[in-house]
Design brief:
Chain lengths: 297, 382
């Protein structure tokens, strides 16, 4: 009897421990949101010790000049969008075709060599891509740019493109490989060429995997900070008119000034994080809507 | 038909072109890192401190030491101190130390231990300056002259030893926190939870966690651990921040691993009279272990490569995380990881060579971790 009761107690205690561990994710999200938001939203409410700031001006402002008490992140939102969009527009077609190459076109030994290599490259820390961008890409951009520096939207897009390549390729290769063999055989038997089969049968069948790859790529590009700082130029304001203009992104703004910011400026960096948080949530919701829609078709 | 052939050829061309571009860019990145950093890579690079140091140490010796057999004839050996020196252009450098050499337990003027190592330069003994021009006989004479010696030691610096130690400590502490947390949470989700609101809430939370960019984790960690919990910029603050960042990955990989354990295992265990805890501990976890290990190894790679979440939680100082009062390693002290340092080298000094050399060390670590996880997966599928 006592042994049994002890057992029941043990079960209950362990159950509670497992439950608490699982709740930890919820608690963490709560803590992150409460802490970041409570500090980041304070400047927009009256009674803030460092002075209040108009929320509308903050979100739409095109200049970030702490020395003049001007904090606008509007241009950073646009820059972040442009950089991500550029990297996806450039990176997705290349990755898609590379994945097709590895999964369908390449001679077997070559494919066997390339796939693990690409997966390995997905594990390279982004800082190293940043070092490459700083030493090779920015100077290359400089040589064709009308401006005196190579730090530019173009350099950011190129670095991000290189970074998302391995991520997207490895996901897409897996999803292409998962397409049932008889789809392919059916298409070939109907007289379609190999290339037609790839583009008309295999890729549509692998659609959801491709979208997952793109979503992962967007996630990696949008949240990237350290690699981008090194090639962005990080100006105090302005929307780029050409791809050779310098840009400051939401992510880079935080790291650039956190080291020395104080008072209102320090709070404003948390406000930037709030905007970044919503920015990413909105994009994730849109992407998951698209993914669901594609899944239904 | 001709139209189709043209289209096919064009498509094939584009496919080869893309694959060529993608591969050559990625090869270029790795080649760049290796070719730029290779010249700095040496044993000293891995062993030395980052900052050059000069230290005066007191030595007391009582033993006499034997010149070891097979020691290079060009080296001079002090029987008094048990040390072999090589004359180089930069001065006399320690190349061999006897296991019992008093230099290994040298005490500096602040009374703390400063063990002399291979690679250190000896620049002065009892007031006699030694440089690259000093004749060997004279060096031996001053080294063997007395039983106590005040020696000036120079360590070249330029190494990444402190960052390697910090990285290792960070990985260790992070895994100690995050692995049990992720595994316990995953056990709840797979073995206990019934579909419902709580499960949905946890799923939603982990989804949000995996969407938050690491720089926001950095801000959070700074506020929560560095400031509110008063841990300061330290290995511990960084590790706690990383633990939350890694929670979704840890949970997902462990859940996947638990799900692959066949139901029949659990039923057999229950059938033998085991209870749920025993079944989980003795049956489910062991058979899910390889999958869990892969999750842990991949997380290690993430920790080694992370920078944005760490820059304001562990700091960027290139020194060992050592408590200055006790001289011991401490997780409550600040110390940059390899990746953070590579970033600082480029951002602050534009030192591409140093960043690439650190990059080589990082790549070797990350690549070997990936190889190991690949081997485990391969073994699993057989």
């Amino acid at each position: 009897m006592t042994v049994n009761r002890k057992r029941v107690w043990m079960e209950k205690i362990f159950h509670a421990i497992f439950f608490m561990a699982a709740s930890f994710a919820v608690v963490s999200v709560g803590a992150i949101i409460v802490l970041i938001f409570s500090r980041g939203l304070r400047p927009f409410f009256p009674g803030n010790i460092y002075g209040t700031y108009n929320f509308f001006d903050f979100v739409t402002g095109l200049n970030w000049r702490p020395a003049f008490g001007e904090f606008g992140v509007g241009y950073m939102i646009i820059n972040s969008l442009l950089a991500t969009l550029g990297a996806i527009l450039l990176g997705v077609p290349i990755s898609l075709l590379t994945a097709v190459f590895i999964a369908e076109v390449a001679p077997k030994p070559l494919a066997k060599l390339m796939q693990p290599a690409i997966e390995l490259l997905a594990a390279i820390p982004s800082v190293l891509y940043g070092v490459f961008g700083f030493a090779i890409i920015a100077p290359a951009v400089k040589s064709i740019s009308p401006h005196p520096t190579g730090d530019s939207l173009l350099a950011v897009i190129l670095v991000l493109t290189i970074m998302v390549l391995p991520t997207i390729v490895s996901v897409v290769v897996t999803s292409i490989r998962a397409v049932p063999q008889n789809y392919k055989e059916g298409s070939l038997a109907l007289g379609a060429s190999k290339i037609q089969t790839i583009f008309k049968v295999i890729l549509p069948a692998a659609k959801s995997g491709i979208l997952t790859g793109v979503v992962l790529g967007v996630g990696r590009a949008i949240g990237e900070t350290m690699a981008v700082i090194l090639v962005a130029g990080n100006p105090e304001g302005g929307i780029p008119t050409t791809i050779f203009d310098r840009v400051r992104l939401l992510t880079t703004n935080i790291v650039l000034e956190q080291g020395y910011a104080a008072e209102l400026q320090a709070q404003m960096l948390f406000s930037t994080a709030v905007v970044l948080f919503f920015f990413i949530m909105i994009i994730n919701i849109i992407l998951s809507k698209i993914q669901k829609k594609a899944g239904d078709m | 038909m001709i139209n189709r052939r043209i289209k096919d050829n064009l498509a094939t061309f584009l496919i080869w072109l893309s694959a060529g571009i993608a591969t050559s860019i990625l090869v270029a990145v790795v080649t760049f890192i290796f070719s730029n950093g290779w010249s700095l890579i040496s044993v000293d690079f891995l062993r030395n401190n980052y900052e050059p140091t000069v230290r005066f140490v007191n030595i007391e010796t009582s033993d006499r030491f034997q010149r070891p057999d097979g020691l290079d004839n060009r080296l001079i050996f002090s029987e008094n101190l048990g040390v072999a020196l090589e004359q180089t252009e930069a001065g006399y450098v320690v190349t061999y130390l006897d296991n019992n050499s008093p230099l290994r337990t040298a005490i500096d003027l602040e009374e703390s231990l400063f063990p002399v190592k291979e690679g250190h330069f000896i620049e002065e003994v009892n007031g006699v300056t030694i440089n690259h021009q000093t004749p060997e006989t004279e060096v031996l004479e001053v080294l063997n002259a007395e039983a106590t010696a005040l020696i000036k030691i120079r360590e070249l610096g330029g190494g990444v030893f402190p960052m390697m130690v910090s990285t290792l400590l960070l990985v260790f502490v992070t895994l100690i926190v995050s692995a049990p947390l992720g595994i316990l949470a995953a056990i709840y989700m797979v073995e206990y939870a019934k579909p419902g609101r709580f499960v949905k809430l946890v799923r939603f939370a982990t989804e949000i966690l995996s969407g938050i960019p690491s720089v926001v984790y950095g801000l959070f960690g700074m506020l929560m651990f560095v400031q509110l919990l008063k841990l300061g910029m330290s290995i511990l603050s960084g590790a706690l921040t990383m633990s939350i960042l890694l929670l979704p990955i840890m949970m997902r990989t462990t859940e996947e691993a638990l799900k692959t354990v066949p139901m029949s295992y659990r039923e057999a265990s229950y059938g033998l009279g085991a209870n749920k805890i025993q079944t989980i501990y003795k049956v489910v976890l062991p058979s899910a272990m390889p999958g869990i290990m892969v999750g842990i190894i991949l997380s290690t790679g993430r920790i080694v490569g992370e920078s944005a979440a760490l820059i304001f939680t562990v700091g960027t100082f290139a020194s060992l995380p050592v408590n200055l009062a006790t001289g011991n390693l401490s997780i409550l002290e600040t110390g940059a990881t390899l990746t953070l340092r590579a970033f600082i080298e480029v951002k602050e000094f534009g030192n591409i060579e140093m960043a690439s050399a650190i990059g080589i060390v990082i790549l070797v670590i990350v690549f070997s971790l990936n190889m190991i996880s690949r081997l485990i997966v391969k073994k699993l599928s057989h």
